[in-house]
Write a structure and sequence with these properties.
Elements lengths: L1 H19 L9 H4 E5 L4 E4 L4 E6 L5 E19 L8 E8 L8 E7 L8 E7 L8 E4 L9 E7 L3 E6 L2 E7 L12 E9 L19 E15 L23 H13 L1 E4 L19
Antiparallel strand pairs: 1-4, 2-3, 3-13, 4-9, 4-12, 4-13, 5-6, 5-12, 6-7, 7-8, 8-14, 9-10, 10-11
């Protein structure tokens, strides 16, 4: 009996080691995967460290970053944005390779607005040092009333930005344009003041009489190949985020994506003739 129990225990242990060696799950607390990178005094842990509050006041904004970098995977968190008069504030959630000249970066930026006016989500993608790929959508709900889930999926086939499981952006690895393939990226977030450009192109300024401004985060989830880590992790086709279902949008996702583009997209660099008389090659790649 004891031998059997030991054998089972050993099997479970080995199974965990094999299946968990390069795939990370949801951390119990913020500090397990992240560290504060900008103004400790403006970032408070709440709910026993399972959630955090970011503060922006006239002295400072704040930010945090993952302790590790990752090569491919899926990163998500629930965010509740600054409510009411948030004009001029920007809350960002992004991945970045921290390699200036050949930077890879995947950005969610939430641009605040005057009370009652819609928040805008701007996404951007840098590949091999080149960005300038902005798209903007207006959210179909009030993102400050409640937590919503924001996700970046990055595998060998495409990069997808999701809002509550609705794809709002797809960047295919089509071979037509650079695609982040070799550089690991960290996970970052900041809340800061950007009233020189954020709201109506900078026309709407921050109303500091409404400060401090608060944003909330919870349910941090990073599943990917940590770097440094097992060298063969990133190229392993057995990683769940590389599976069939994740290589292209499902039929349901494609429907939702078209719905967003038809009803909620307010800017797309691909169709901005003043910036790009000829659409950049990735714009013709489809989904
Ligand atoms: C803010 O609201 C105005 C008016 O509805 C809208 O034109 C704009 O796109 C909104 N978002 C930003 C970031 O300016």
């Amino acid at each position: 009996m004891a031998i059997l129990r030991n054998a089972i225990a050993l099997f479970v242990l080995l199974y965990c080691l094999v299946s968990c060696s390069c795939v990370l799950g949801r951390p119990a607390t913020f500090l397990e995967d992240f560290k504060v990178t900008w103004s400790d005094a403006h970032l408070r842990q709440i709910e026993g460290g399972r959630a955090i509050q970011l503060v922006l006041d006239q002295n400072s904004g704040c930010g945090f970053a993952s302790k590790r970098q990752y090569l491919f995977g899926r990163v998500s968190m629930k965010i509740k944005l600054v409510p009411g008069d948030s004009a001029g504030t920007v809350t960002a959630f992004y991945m970045n390779s921290n390699t200036e000249n050949v930077r890879d970066e995947l950005d969610f930026e939430f641009l605040g607005n005057r009370t009652g006016q819609p928040y805008t989500v701007q996404t951007n993608i840098y590949a091999n040092g080149k960005g300038d790929r902005e798209q903007r959508v207006n959210l179909w709900f009030d993102p400050a009333a409640d937590y919503h889930l924001y996700t970046i999926l990055w595998n060998h086939h495409h990069i997808v930005f999701y809002v509550d499981d609705v794809p709002i952006r797809v960047y295919k690895n089509s071979g037509r344009a650079p695609f982040p393939m070799n550089q690991p990226m960290g996970v970052y977030s900041t809340l800061w003041e950007a009233d020189d450009w954020a709201t109506r192109g900078g026309l709407e300024k921050i109303d500091w009489s409404k400060a401090p401004f608060y944003a909330y985060y919870r349910d941090f989830d990073i599943e990917g190949c940590p770097v440094p880590g097992p060298a063969n992790c990133a190229s392993n086709p057995g990683n769940w985020w590389e599976a069939n279902n994740y290589q292209a949008l499902t039929a349901m996702e494609a429907r939702r994506y078209r719905w967003v583009r038809l009803n909620h997209m307010i800017y797309d660099y691909c169709t901005d003739k003043s910036r790009y008389p000829v659409p950049p090659p990735e714009c013709l790649a489809g989904i």
